[in-house]
Specification:
alpha/beta, Rossmann fold, six-stranded parallel sheet, three-stranded antiparallel sheet, 11 helices
Length: 251
Amino acid sequence: MQRSISTMAIAFVASLAAFAAHAADVKNIVVVHGALADGSGWKTATEILEKRGFNVTIVQQPITSLADDIAATNRVLDMQDGPTLLVGHSYGGVVITEAGHNNKVAGLVYVAAFQPDKGESLLSLASSKPSSGMNIRETPDGQYLYLDPAAFPKDFAADLPQDETAFMAKAQVFASKQSFSAKVGDPAWRAKNSWAIVATQDRSINPELEREMAKRAGSAITEITASHAVFASQPDKVADVIEAAARQSSK
């Protein structure tokens, strides 16, 4: 009888802790950047969010494989003190769809991102509704992909100054073909609330595909007139969506 009471007490305390964790304010933001870019483009959006009281961390995943990128994201998530909003741009959306199962994650934000369902990959989704920019090149070894620097301004960040896009092209992280072809398992957006930003002038992901994926996932959708680099060209608007998602995830 005593053991039964002790067991019930432990279960009760555990349930209270779980409730408290769920009800706690979401002050942590973890961002997973997309392929053919690195995390530096999130500098202004990060500064805006930090001025609003959030703790922001950018995952610099290797893009060597989807499994490697999920592991890199989980390493950062495991270091967060409390509930966290997980944000993914472009290919980063594929990563957060899997990494979003982490217990620290309170919600998901897709920024001009892929939102795959079970069994889908970036490649299968991109092929279903091709984008208007198709200037992807292979590295000499045939294992990695990159965006032609000459086409980078037009295809990735047409609404940014040319000196910025030139630097972004030079700093882009090449993506392994394996990352783009890897199929996801059960998507975290089925179990957790999600938000999505559709970049209406996107040439890297077809905007209609962004809308369809977000509607399928039941995400709260915000449309912003911007290029694929909406996080850099419209950082205030992107920060507004992320802040609203964090506030709503805290309820």
